[in-house]
Specification:
The active site is at 27 (proton acceptor). Keywords: Hydrolase. Substrate binds at residues 182, 289. It is a single chain. The chain is an alpha/beta fold. The chain has helices at 26-41, 57-62, 93-107, 121-127, 183-195, 216-226, 246-255, 269-275, 285-292, 307-315, 330-339, 343-357, 362-370; strands spanning 12-17, 44-50, 66-70, 111-115, 133-137, 149-152, 171-174, 203-207, 234-239, 259-264, 278-281, 297-301, 320-324. It has 2 domains: 12-181 and 360-370, Rossmann fold (3-Layer(aba) Sandwich); 183-357, 3-Layer(aba) Sandwich (Rossmann fold), CATH 3.40.50. A 7-stranded parallel beta sheet has the order 3-2-1-4-5-6-7, with helices on both faces. The two termini are 34 Å apart.
Length: 384
Amino acid sequence: MSAAPPSYDAPQIVIRADASRDIGTGHVMRCLTLAEQLRRTGYAVHFVSRDLPGHLGARIQAEGFKLRLLPAPTETVLAPDGPAHAVWAGVPWQVDADQTRAVMEATSPAWLIVDHYAFDARWQKATLTQGTRLMVWDDLADRPHACDLLLDQNLGRTADAYAGLVPEGCRILAGPQFAVLRPEFAVARPQALEARTGRDLRRITVSMGGVDLPNATGQVLSVLAQTRAAHDLEIEVILGSRAPAIDAVRAQAEAMPQTVEVAVDVTDMAVRMARADLAIGAVGGTTWERCTLGLPSLLLTIAENQRPAAQKIHDAGAAHLLGDISDPDWGAELARWLAASDRAARMRVMADTCARLYDGSGVGRVVAALSGSSDIALNTEQQP
C-alpha cells in the first residue's frame, strides 16, 4: 500500500522518464520505485512522460502520482548531432525541453530527475528553472550532462567514467550499491539466502523484460522444450501485459512438455524470485533483484547497450552470459549449461557471488543523496 500523500507544502520533485515498445518499461519502473521512497520521505512527486506506444501513464497514476502526459509525436526525429538514442524522445529535443519546462514553471520543484538516454546537457540547460537542481540517471556515460547529482548503478562503474561529461562539483553515485529496488527485496533477502543452501535445480524463472520486443521469451521456451535436461523442471514466465508477443507466449506455454506458468504484471516479484532456483533473463534492474536474493542467473542480452553490463556481471562470476539474442549459438550454450554435470556447484558459486555484490538497500542511499546527506559512501563499488 502506498504511503499517505504528502502535505501541500511538501518539497516538489519532477521526474522525466518514458516507457515505450522501443525503450521498454525499465526506466519508468525504477523511477516509480524511487518516487515511492521519496514520497515516504515527504516529497511530492510529479511525472512527465511522452504519449508513446506502450507508455505507462496508467501505471504511474495507479501508484498515486500526478502525471503530465506530453503529446504523442507527429514527426520523425532527425538528430545527427544528438545522443545515440535521440530518436527515443519521439520529438526534437527542443520541443521536449519547452514542454517539460512548462511543467517545471508550474511546479517549482526542488529537483528534476531525468532518466532518459535521449537527452543531454542541451536539453537539461533548456529545461531547468531557477532554483531547481538536476539529477541524471544514466547507464551509458556517452554524453555530457549539466547535473548536480548523477546515478549510474552499473557494476564496475566509477566516477572516472564521467570525467569531462559532468560539471565540477557534481556528486556521482557509481556502482551497484546505489541500485534502486523496491524494499521488498531487502526484506526477503535473509530468508531467501538461507533457503538457497543445498538446493538443486527444480524451478526456472524466465524474465526478458516487461515488453520483450524481440520475443526472446518465446525463443528461450523453444530451447527449453527441446532440452532433455529441462524436461523435469517447472518454468515460470514473467511478462508485462504490453508485451506484443504475450498471446503467442501463452499458446506456446500450453504446448510445452514442462509445466509452464505465465505471470503478467506481477506485483510480488521478490516472492517469485525467492522460490526460483535459476533465472534466465535480460540485463537491467532485475539483475540487482536477482543479486539481492542470491538467485543464479543465465543472461541473454536483447539490446546493444546491455552487452557491457552483462559482460561485467559474467566476469565477476555473478551470472553466466549465454550471448545475445542475435547470436546463433546461445541456445546450444543454454542446453549445455543445463546438462552440465557440475550444474549444482556452478549454481552455488553464482548464488554466493551475486549475493555479495548487492544488499538491496540502494534506494535509501539515493534518497539520502537527494536529501543532501553526506553520510553515504560515494564513488565506490562493491567487489565480489
